[in-house]
Amino acid sequence: MAQSTASGKSSQGTWSPFFRSRGSLVAMVAVATLASSVISGCGFGRADPGDAARSLADGIEAGDVSGVPMLSGGKAAQKDFSRIIDGLGDEHPAVTVGDVIEDGDKATAVLSTSWKFDQTVWAYKTRAHLTHDGDRWEVDWTPALVAPKLGQDERLSLRSTSASRADILGAADAPLVTEREVVRVGIDKTKTKPDQTDGSAESLARLLDINVANYQKRVKAAGPQAFVEALVLRAGPSYPIDDAQITAIPGAVKIRDELPLAPTREFAQPLLGTVGEATAEIIKDSRGKIRAGDMVGLSGLQKRYDDQLRGLPRLEVTAISSKAGAKQRILFTSESRAGKALRTTIDPTLQRAADDILTSVKPASAIVAIRPSTGDVLALASGPGGKGYATASLGRYAPGSSFKVVTALTFLRSGLTQKSIVPCTKSLTVDGRQFENYDAYPASRLGNIPLRSAIANSCNTAMIAKRALAPQPKLADAAAALGLGQDFDLGLPAFLGSVPTKASGTAHAASMIGQGRIEASPLSMATVAASIAHGQRVTPKLLPDYPSKPMPNVSAKLTNGEAEQLSAMIRAVVTEGSGGFLADIPGGPVSAKTGTAEYGTDNPPRTHAWMIATQGDLAVAVFVEDGASGSGTAGPLLESFLRSIQ
């Protein structure tokens, strides 16, 4: 091998800048290592203790400290950390590193920690002690890093106490939903022998008419000290169970309590909604605001305005020792804040009357009442046939002949008056489709008759024969002028109807009599009636404190003259048409319009039954999903309602 020289040339005299002998290379490495040792020994280039402190802060935030450099090992620290914070649920704190003071191989870092529980913050500072072991800084793990002065045997626990839930109020601030006495019935396992519990659960389930197997399973799974609730019943005259029947079952007990309830089980139930224990889904979606055992709104207004009604719970964080007999230490408490009442315009008398009338109606049904002068919704009742669905505000149904008031307004705007003559024939064919009047249409009202009479007797063919005077865009405009087909935020989910601006041929002909693609809810048809009574479009109002926007402007507003003629035509329904049974109702003249709408594919088709009415400063819409006719099915319900509120 060629030997290097001092000049860096080989023995052959060739320059090689990359060539080094093994001896010189070893010498250079030794010098570099010595220099590095000297620098390290002097403290230059040593790791920053702040980095280890920040790693600890990040680990506490994430709930995982296993990767943090620890004196005693990250896995042991993680196990201890998990034990400490398990009682706080899924909460995670925010942790920042403050001052870091280094003193030789020791350092101290200040951690600022804050936990956010709903709208409450628990904030504090702790100190982390670190040691340099020659290569890196390591944290001295202790429970006091998680919370101040936390002992080795202690863990954290979070408990919430619900605030006082606010009432839902009606007109004049009358309480609709308020705390009412209930009885919780169940099995107290401390009051029965182990071999009796299964039989007791079966007997109580049969007495209360609940699922036997499910209740037996719940009782069996509960601990030996548990009270296993079977059913919550209203206290008072309607309480359905004899106390003797309960005491005869070993371990069966009843516990008195209070819950936010409406006056009766049926009272505005789909509107107001219910309150109950938070479900797993609600707890998950709340992102820490709601915990197991919290009472929350489960449906209706109770659910939509739960934050307002529920208020802010009282929170308490405690340190719990594993030592026998040790007392809990309270580390943090927050004050509760009572919920804020939700005001509505519901009149308890009218709402109760509507609910009572619909109790025995088997199909989906609704009664809606509005005060025309203010737009206040006084009753929004959905019958039990809808199985909890808010038929009154969300139903989407063809309005049938009740829509003819819209058709009549379109005719008025095209130059007709209530006295104008229109042809009412037995049938009429449009593009091959035959339209007829309802089966019981009076023969004496056929022929050339005044528009007033065509509306009073609900002549389909007269409306369709004059369809050229009511093109579809004009029909939609007239509907909007009466509040139908508007996009409006009422403060709760609501459908105010849909009237297409385009339709031709048979579709346009069907629109003239409220069928085809026209849809309405009972709320929207009550709004139509209210607008006629008020003489201008009415915006329905249910929540007086809700910052709602007015309905969109329309190109042609309802005028007093138009409203007067419409009022005269629907008054004629009572004086000379199919609504004669309403003529003797006390409390002033009643005006009305019936509606029957075919739907579905059955032969003969099934029909919706409608009736809208006005009396003084009251507008009402009645709907039954399946009925014989407007006057025959919805009419008697309307009559009962108007008579019951006098």
What does this structure look like?
The chain has three domains: 49-155, NTF2-like, domain 1 (Nuclear Transport Factor 2, Chain: A); 168-343, Penicillin-binding protein 2a (Domain 2) (Alpha-Beta Complex), CATH 3.90.1310; 348-399 and 468-644, DD-peptidase/beta-lactamase superfamily (Beta-lactamase), CATH 3.40.710.10. α4 (197-208) packs antiparallel against α5 (212-221), α13 packs across α16 and α13 crosses α19. It is built from 20 helices and 23 strands. The chain is an alpha+beta fold and 646 residues long. The strands form seven sheets. Strands 6, 7, 8, 9 and 14 form a five-stranded mixed β-sheet that branches. A five-stranded antiparallel β-sheet has the order 16-15-23-22-21, sandwiched between helices.
Helix content: 25-40%
- Strand pairing plus helix content: what structural class? alpha+beta
By DSSP (H or I, 4+ residues per run), the number of helices equals 20
> What would CATH call the architecture of the largest domain?
3-Layer(aba) Sandwich
Strand content: 15-25%
